[in-house]
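Possible race condition, two jobs.
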Amino acid sequence: MRFHHVALSMALASTGALLAATSDALNAHEKGVLKLASRQLVVADSARVVGEKFARRSTVVLFLSGVRGRIRLQEVHADTGGAFAVMLHVPSDIAPGGYRLIAIASDGDEVASLDVAVVSARPAVSTASHHEGEMPSAVGLALPRARSPWVTGGVVLAIALSLIGGAWLLRRPGTEAGGSC
């Protein structure tokens, strides 16, 4: 029994030392922040992008990532404070829809991202808070979901096995008759 405690202590200590030694390698890049005045980008227009909290004097490439893959926009250089401000040109051949603006470091790691919508023309500003005939309601959404008894039974079985496995791992070892620790 004593050997079990020594082995467990050694395993925990070596895991802690390994994590402490590799923490710098795991955090090779600082996570940057991308800011836009509006999360709607207009096709064939420009928008000001501000980046903060990037690695000092680093170079990142801005991409729009969507259903059809990544579209390279431009390369930017952060200053000594890890910030940049650039005018981002949205290509004229990009399809309207939902995209993610991504900043990729020189080694290929994603260091910042921001969800945006690309629209074909700047939307008109409406004074009304809703469109005519589209009033909010308390009616729930009809969302499709699995109703199979096999799926439900499988989920219940997985939960039960997880609880039994957790209880088995947390059990206290019994004392041996005639032995002492």
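Job #2 (started ~2 s after job #1):
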Amino acid sequence: MRLKRQVRVLVEFGLLFLLSGWILLLSGSGLYATDRGAEAQAHADSGLQLARSGDLPSAEAELRQAVTLEARNPEFLSTLGTLLAIDHKLEESTTVFRKALQLAPRDLTVRRYLAANLWQLHRYSEAKQELKILLRQQPNDAPSRLLLGMVAENTQDYATAAKMLSSVPDEVVKQPESIAALARSYYHLGQPEKARNTLAELSKPAAGSVRPRNYWSRSGCPLPIPLRSDIAWRWFSTTRAVSRKVKALSRI
């Protein structure tokens, strides 16, 4: 009996020791995960500060570190994607935005930015698909209606382009290319008078106006900074000959 009692005590002690080891192991891994999360957040915060100052290469490096440490953080991914897009790395930015959307599929801002990338990459059908998903969830989203109008004009769907662009005049007026797209759409629909009026009205600089901003008002932007206006403009301005379009259309 005494031997059995000793064996039972040893077994219980062994189980207790094993359980204690597992607790220590799990708590240690939890602390490790916490440390990684804190380190990732520190890199992300540093990246945002660098972006505010206009140092995009260093900001991008910091966000890459954050994503390496926490690859499934949609906020880090979307911020990295935005920085890549601003730096004209649209293919990689698109890949990163898609990863962010897999983790946060209802993030409308990221979907809008993805559509903007696809439009600039001339992948119009994909851009249209993303915008339709977005507008089903938020039909009155002005930047998305603007972008869908631009996609439609690029694919010669002039009726949709005119409908979308004319519905958001406050957005159109910010971009010379959008003004040209709306005027072109009216012209191809056999409405040259509307085309001329569009150029005349929307091309007038408003009193006290400043340099036009980018397409997105950045409400809900994944970058809570704001970015310097000239940096943002570099992303959303395309390389097309906007001024030539406007001049040609003014002669209609």
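The two ends are 108 Å apart (CA to CA).
Logs attached separately.
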